Amino acid sequence: MQFEAYQQIGAIPYERNDQRKAHRNGTRKRTLKTRAGEIILDKPQFREFPFETKVFERYSRVEQSLLMAIAESYIQGVSTRKMEEIVKKFGLDRLSASEVSRICKILDEKVDEFLKRPIEIKIHHLFVDATYFKVRHGAQYKTRAFLIVTGIREDGYREILGACVAESEDSGFWSGLFRSLKDRGLEGVQTVTSDAHKGIQKAVESSFVGASWQYCHVHFDRAVLESIPKKDKKEIAEKLKDATDDEMKMQNLAAELIELGFSPAAETIDRFRFDLWNYKAYPKAHWKKIRTTNVVERINKELKRRSRSVGAFPSEKSLMRLAGCIMININEEWITGNKYLSMDEE
After folding, report:
1. Maximum Cα–Cα distance for the chain, whole Å?
2. I need a surface site. Which of 12, 18, 50, 191 has the fewest CB within 10 A?
3. Distance CA 291, CA 279 (A)
4. Rounded Cα distance, 248 and 251, in Å
5. pTM of the predicted model, to two decimals?
């Protein structure tokens, strides 16, 4: 801080020169909570203007790195009660409203930067999905959709590309998200894998002309089995699995289901027969990884795990804050880990 004082006024103590911008006015005792406990600082004072330091923010009584540690604990799923215990161990009786606000600001800036970063590498395969959370609106709690888009880049690595909080999975919300991704540089999309929500299908058709829509096989199996009686589910599930990579077997299964009296299940197969096999246009080694939305499931699972300790979110902004931080951590693992697909495989 003494060096900062020298930089700001342009002179060391008692020095006289033409570049001096202010005069010292002693020091003032200042307490600061740090990871090593509470320390007392001698903060320099100026007569003409306030002294500023990077050691702490103005009016702050808590070290920035300590706030980051608390914020990271929050992201990792530490409950509010345990957070209070952690804070006490750091020597803080409580966090003031301004300190909580600063933690939120740290996280919001981090998330905003992540969601607006340029997409610099072509994305060949997109995976889109939504999960739902309770969010408070005034005196009411409403269900909101959290839309997520991930992709596999042309170099074989996975990347979380974008997300937003929406009122529903209506095509307008998906189209808006896709448009924002294209504005950030998204290009090269060849397939889009998702469930059969009509809003997604409509948005994909208008947003990615020339790309193929791939119906996620996990969601497809669930849709077929939904109308099958419980006692027959296991047998039909095994037949579905056997027909996964064989179009003729799948058509034969549809005919068999009609004979067994399971017409709704057969109609599901018939309705999506042209959208189940687009993954076959790519190397066989890639099939299992591009015909389902499993790449998104890790994200959804982590979001749900963390939200259990939250219950309902006080606002859409708080939902995005937490979800965004979780996605940042997962995305870092993806782009610094092993390749998801070997793009040289044939």
Report:
1. 101
2. 18
3. 6
4. 5
5. 0.74
